[in-house]
Amino acid sequence: MTEQPQRGEQTQTPENGQPGTPAPRYDRKGLCWIIGSAGVALAIGITAVGVELGAASASAAAEATAGTPASTGLVAKPADFQDISLAAQQAAPGLVDIDADLGLQGAGTAGTGIVLSSDGKVLTNNHVVEGATAISVTDIGNGQTYRATVLGYDRSQDVALLQLSDASGLQTAKIGDSGTVAVGDSVAGIGNAGGVGGAPSVAAGRVTALNQDITASDESASSSEQLHGLIQVAADIQPGDSGGPLINNSGEVVGMDTAASAGYRFQRMGRDAGGTGFAIPIDQAVAIAHDIEAGASSDTVHIGQSALLGAAVSPVQGGALVRQVVSGTPADQLGLAAGDVITAVDGRAIDSPTALTAAMDTTHPGDQVTVEWSDAYGGPRQGQATLIAGPVG
Question: Where does the chain cross the membrane (predicted)?
Answer without folding.
Answer: 31-51
